[in-house]
Amino acid sequence: MTSDVLPPRTRAPRSRTALRGLVVGAVLGVALLVLRAVSATWGADALPDRLRDFVTLSVSVVIESLPFVFLGILISVVVRFWVPDQVIHRIMPRNPALRRVVISLVGVLLPVCECGNVPLARGFMMKGFSVPEAMTFLLAAPILNPVTIVTTYQAFGWNDGILIGRIAGGFVIANLVGWLFSRHPRPELLLTPAFEEACRIGDGDHEHEHGRAGQLAKLRRGVVAFADETSTMLPALIVGSAIAGAIQVGLSRDVLTALGSNPIWSVLALMLLAFVIAICSNVDAFFILAFGSTFLPGGVVAFLVFGAMVDVKMITLLRTTFTTGALVRLVAVVALASLALGFGVNLLA
């Protein structure tokens, strides 16, 4: 079934839902930005310190993530409507393991941070990627891309094996998760019913659309798809950023710092920090650099790997696509693997 044969009664509500979600997300985003701008002009006693910190931290996460989310949605739409299916499948190996290895390196060509990779992975799945392949891409791309590698090198150089640990650890964990989920007898059950239905319906066959009329029709579908994805991602991003801001306000960093010299607790503490601050993988190396003298190298590596793959903001974004059960298993595997990686680096350092 293609979108071209869907009856108007089915397509119209979907467009209205997308528009409604887009408006709600835009209003929430503008409200946060206005609140942030206005609060800067208020006196010190106008807002309680914790509330002011909550607004500042939440809006900062939104501002940092928003450009990458839009970039990811834009690339996703281009892939869905303008990249022929045979091009993608022709360049990919047929062997599933080799195919996941190649997919885990796609981030080198598409340097989008983890927020933008969610809509991009959704676009890949609508083009025929399997669920394990999409998960491999989602976990590997934020780390195995040139921007992240360069910023990590600028922050740490070759010191303590942090750069190598991040690259190698990210590659291995992404492929491990992809392999584990490939053992699922029905991977499509890991998707939310709404997104599974969207993948099943697909975008239709646009391979044979030629001429001005065909390109205009494809452009219209691309604009609708952009609005649809934005309406899905924007509310999730704002809610996730607010949760991250609230947790940061309540989290004592003094406690985290006190755990920095223990081989195990230093890893766990920085993984927890990575999960709650939800900072972009392209700049997280500079953030954790300030903790480099307090925490062991394994903790830093675990922060750079775990935080790039999973954080509180990412969970809300991924929930638009995967079921709660799938996300619980995903977070558990990534957390255990990151813990083992960090502990191993501490033993070798």
What is the secondary structure topology, with strand pairs?
Elements: H1 8-39, H2 49-82, H3 85-91, H4 96-103, H5 114-126, H6 131-140, H7 146-156, H8 162-182, H9 193-201, H10 211-250, H11 253-258, H12 265-277, H13 284-289, H14 297-309, H15 312-318, H16 324-348
Features:
349 residues; mainly alpha; 73% helix
Can you characterise this structure?
It is a single chain. This protein has 349 residues and is mainly alpha-helical. The protein has one domain. It has helices at 8-39, 49-82, 85-91, 96-103, 114-126, 131-140, 146-156, 162-182, 193-201, 211-250, 253-258, 265-277, 284-289, 297-309, 312-318, 324-348. Helix 2 runs antiparallel to helix 10 (211-250). The longest helix has 40 residues, at 211-250. Residues 1-12 have low confidence and may be disordered. Its main location: membrane.
Approximate shape: globular
Distance between the termini: 56 Å
Query: How many E-type strands?
Result: 0
Supply the number of helical segments. Answer: 16
Secondary-structure element string: HHHHHHHHHHHHHHHH
Query: How much strand?
Result: under 5%
Largest sheet: none
Domain count: the total is 1
Pick out the low-confidence regions: 1-12
| Helix content percent band | over 70%
Instruction: Name the structural class.
Output: mainly alpha
| Average of pLDDT | 81
Computed Rg: 21 Å
